[in-house]
């Protein structure tokens, strides 16, 4: 059972690896040291003052969540983490809230990221197999629960006090409910060096198969000590991924090479599945499946809270938008965000009306957790992207950005579209 609480005190600034100010949150968790700082959160090591249990606490600014329009992602991550109960997935214990921040109390993996272990030297095949077994056990469990991680990488694999693996960070995960009518997912996300080629193609993809590809990249790094697809130029790296171009180090065994090639098969139709791994000679050696019963949970809300409650405000770990890396790259400027109480359909209707009146092409789009429109002039001298994100049940965030250096776009925005959107701004 998760609970929300008010906290009267905020933690002081701290340096990674150094002791914090010793603040006790709600008289329950004493902060020890800052473990890491990300774009959206700080993570602390803390202990339960009553039991002495070590936990990790992720602190997220509410302002970041509101400004970023991240409610849908947040809600989904909470829902997913609460339904997963596996020895190799990180546990979420509870959610705490203060006036300005949200705190997520998580299982503490004192061994840190697997990435740092590999950085000290590549693993033997036996040790790599041990960790890969644990990874696939967790992934197989997630897939059977209808959860696709979509951002599996060494940074998101943690090691606990028993040197066992814990899969973390489900901020980019998707559920079976999110697939479109074609049975595929379409949102481009993840970390560049780990993404599958079909995701780059932007034609839709199977969530289970892109997870298998990422697992293949992870196994390659464990045994080789370096990434199979790497280049200082992102576009060049994506071309290597798209073509499936990589080389094994000389010490890789023939059995492992065959297995990795089945994982990093650029054709998702012939790529090995998690179930098929059970019959592979390299993988099946010593593998033992962990049997866990699935527990379904409904997302709980506080009826007395206004706006976003603590369940709505879990940290979101953003991925890289790679939609422009295969020939449509561009630089945006003039980004503006506003809050509106209007329905997305009405906002899009207004955008379409303004665009058509000025002879501007408009294409409405609907992704898993956002709606929007792309506006483009007939002569290519205008390009504006409008995105709508759900903030609360009543409010949405409208984000508009135009392509850099497009003078006609700036004029259209300032004189036509911006005034109309400002009429939709929410007034409390």
Automatic annotation (TrEMBL):
InterPro entries given in the database record: Kinase-like_dom_sf, NAF/FISL_domain, NAF_dom, Prot_kinase_dom, Protein_kinase_ATP_BS, Ser/Thr_kinase_AS
Binding site for ATP: 58
GO MF terms, alphabetically ordered: ATP binding; protein serine/threonine kinase activity
Organism superkingdom: Eukaryota
Keywords annotated in UniProt: ATP-binding, Kinase, Manganese, Nucleotide-binding, Serine/threonine-protein kinase, Transferase
EC class: transferase
Domain Protein kinase: 29-283
Catalytic activity of the protein: L-threonyl-[protein] + ATP = O-phospho-L-threonyl-[protein] + ADP + H(+); L-seryl-[protein] + ATP = O-phospho-L-seryl-[protein] + ADP + H(+)
EC number: 2.7.11.1
Pfam families cross-referenced by the UniProt entry: NAF (PF03822), Pkinase (PF00069)
Cross-referenced PROSITE patterns: NAF, PROTEIN_KINASE_ATP, PROTEIN_KINASE_DOM, PROTEIN_KINASE_ST
GO biological process annotation, one example: signal transduction
Cofactor: Mn(2+)
Domain NAF: 303-327
UniProt record similarity statement: Belongs to the protein kinase superfamily. CAMK Ser/Thr protein kinase family. SNF1 subfamily.
Described function: CIPK serine-threonine protein kinases interact with CBL proteins. Binding of a CBL protein to the regulatory NAF domain of CIPK protein lead to the activation of the kinase in a calcium-dependent manner.
Entry protein name: non-specific serine/threonine protein kinase
Species, as recorded: Acacia crassicarpa
């Amino acid at each position: 059972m998760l609970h929300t609480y008010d906290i009267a005190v905020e933690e002081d600034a701290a340096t990674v690896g150094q002791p914090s100010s010793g603040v006790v949150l709600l008289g329950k968790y004493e902060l020890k040291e800052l473990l890491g700082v990300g774009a959206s959160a700080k993570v602390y090591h803390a202990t339960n003052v009553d039991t002495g249990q070590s936990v990790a606490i992720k602190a997220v600014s509410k302002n970041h969540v509101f400004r970023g329009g991240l409610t849908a992602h947040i809600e989904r991550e909470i829902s997913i983490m609460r339904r997963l109960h596996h020895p190799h997935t990180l546990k979420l214990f509870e959610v705490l809230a203060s006036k300005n921040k949200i705190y997520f109390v998580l299982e503490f993996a004192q061994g840190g990221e697997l990435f740092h272990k590999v950085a000290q030297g590549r693993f033997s095949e036996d040790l790599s197999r041990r960790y890969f077994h644990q990874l696939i056990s967790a992934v197989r469990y997630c897939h059977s629960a209808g959860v696709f991680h979509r951002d599996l990488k060494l940074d998101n694999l943690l090691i606990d006090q028993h040197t066992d693996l814990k899969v973390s960070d489900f901020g980019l995960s998707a559920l079976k409910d999110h697939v479109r009518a074609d049975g595929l997912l379409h949102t481009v996300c993840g970390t560049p060096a780990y993404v599958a080629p079909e995701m780059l193609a932007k034609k839709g993809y199977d969530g289970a198969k892109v997870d298998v590809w990422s697992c293949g990249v992870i196994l390659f790094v464990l045994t080789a000590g370096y990434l199979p697809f790497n280049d200082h130029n992102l576009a060049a790296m994506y071309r290597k991924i798209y073509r499936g171009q990589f080389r094994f180090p000389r010490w890789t065994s023939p059995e492992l090479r065959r297995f990795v090639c089945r994982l990093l098969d650029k054709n998702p139709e012939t790529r090995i599945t998690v179930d098929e791994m059970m019959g592979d000679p390299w993988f099946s050696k010593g593998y033992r499946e962990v049997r866990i019963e699935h527990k379904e949970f409904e997302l709980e809300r506080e009826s007395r809270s206004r706006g976003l409650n603590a369940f709505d405000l879990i940290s979101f770990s953003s991925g890289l938008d790679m939609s422009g890396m295969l020939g449509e790259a561009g630089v945006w400027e003039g980004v503006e965000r506003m809050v509106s109480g209007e329905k997305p359909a009405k906002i899009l209707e207004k955008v379409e009306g303004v665009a058509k009146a000025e002879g501007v092409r408009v294409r409405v789009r609907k992704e898993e957790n956002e709606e929007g429109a792309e506006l483009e002039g007939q002569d290519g001298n205008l390009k504006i992207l409008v995105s709508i994100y759900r903030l609360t049940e009543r409010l949405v965030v409208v984000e508009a950005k135009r392509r850099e250096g497009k003078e006609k776009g700036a004029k259209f925005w300032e004189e036509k579209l911006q005034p109309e959107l400002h009429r939709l701004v929410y007034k409390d």
